[in-house]
Amino acid sequence: MNDMTAPLAFAAADYKSDYKPIWCPGCGDYTVLSSVTKALAMIQRPPHEVAVVSGIGCSSRLPAYTTCYGFHGVHGRALAAGTGLKVARPDLTVIVAGGDGDGYSIGGNHFLHACRRNVDLTYIVMDNHVYGMTKGQASPTTEPDWDNKLSPGGTGVRAFHPLVIALASGANFVARAFSGDPNGTAAIIAQAIRHPGFSFVEVLSPCITFRPEQRQWKELVHAAPVAETDDPARAARRIMTDDGFNVGVLYAGSRPVYARAKEASASLAEIEAEFAL
User: Fold this and answer.
1) Residue 121 in contact with residue 178, Cβ under 8 Å?
2) How confident is the model at residue 5 (pLDDT cuts 50, 70, 90)?
3) Sign of the Cα pseudo-torsion (88, 89, 94, 98, in order)
4) Concatenated DSSP letters for 124-153?
5) Do strands 122-127 and 69-72 pair parallel, antiparallel, or not at all (unpaired)?
C-alpha cells in the first residue's frame, strides 16, 4: 500500500515561477493560477513533464507564471499548438489556457474540432464575458443587453454557450468552476487532467475593472443540483436549462481517445517518390 503519510514530492509552490503576475487588482485569473498549481500538486507530475500552452489575452499569460514548459502562441491558435504538442509528445501532460475572446471568437473553429478529435489534453478557459486586455469590448459570451460605451444598449447578439458547443462537438469531459472557489476549481482541474480525452473546464473569472457588476457572481454561483453523468443526452438536457452559474462536473464521457499510429504507413522515400516530377 502507498504510505499516505509520506510527504508529497511536489507542492503547489513548486509549479509557480518567479515572475510576478501583472493582472489588474481583483482579477479572477490570480486564483485560477493558484488553482492550476494546486491541481498539478494533486496530480504530482514533475514540472518538466507538464506543458502549458496559451494564445493571446489576459488569461494567456498563465504559462509564464508556472515552472512548467510553456508556449505563448498567437491569437486563437492555442488549441492547434496544444493538440500538435500532445500528439507529438503523448508522454507530456498538456494544459491549454485562454479566455472567452481568444477561445470562442478567433479560436472558435479550433475549439469545435479539438472537442471532436478528443486528444488527451485539458482546456481551461477563463471566461469574464468581456475583452479585458483590449479595454472592455463585448466578447462572444457577453450578454446581448450589456450596455457600454462601445456597444450602447448592448450588441443584441445572442451569447455563445461554450458548454453546449463542447458537448455537441464531442468533448469527453465538460465542467464549470468559479475562480472565487480556488480549492473547488483545483479539484475540478485535477479531475479534468486525469480524465482521458479532451477535457474542457470553463472557469467564471470576473473582470471587475471593466465589469464591476461581476462582483455579484460570488452570490450567484451554486453547485450543480445533480451529479455528473456519462450520458450525453442527459447532459444536454441539463446544460440547455443551465442558468450559467451551475458549478461542477456536468459530463464525464468514455469516448475513445485519439491516438496517432505508432508506425508510419510509408517511408520518407516512398512519400518523396509520389511527388517526383
Assistant:
1) no
2) low
3) negative
4) EEEE-SSBTTTTSB--TTS-TT---SSSTT
5) unpaired
Specify whether the backbone of 117 is left (phi greater than 0), alpha (psi in -120 to 50) or beta: alpha
First to last CA, the chain: 64
What angle, 0 to 180 degrees and rounded to 10, lies between the N-to-C axes of helices 232-240 and 162-169?
160
C-alpha cell at position 79 = 488549441
CA 161 to chain CA centroid, nearest Å: 14
> How many other CB atoms sit within 10 Å of the CB of residue 6?
7
| Mean pLDDT confidence for 148-155 | 86
Phi, psi of 7 (to 5 degrees): -65, 145
- Each residue of 49-89: pLDDT tens digit? 999 999 998 989 999 999 999 999 888 899 999 999 999 99
**Phi, psi of 184, rounded to the nearest 5 degrees:** -65, -40
pTM value surpassing 0.85 = yes
Which residues face 70 on adjacent strands? Answer: 52
Q: Give CA separation, 30 vs 57, 133, 153, 187, 197, in Å.
A: 14, 15, 31, 17, 27
Q: Within its chain, how far is the Cα of 42 from the centroid?
A: 18
User: What is 15-257's CATH number?
Assistant: 3.40.50.970
Whole-angstrom distance, CA of residue 139 vs CA of residue 136: 9
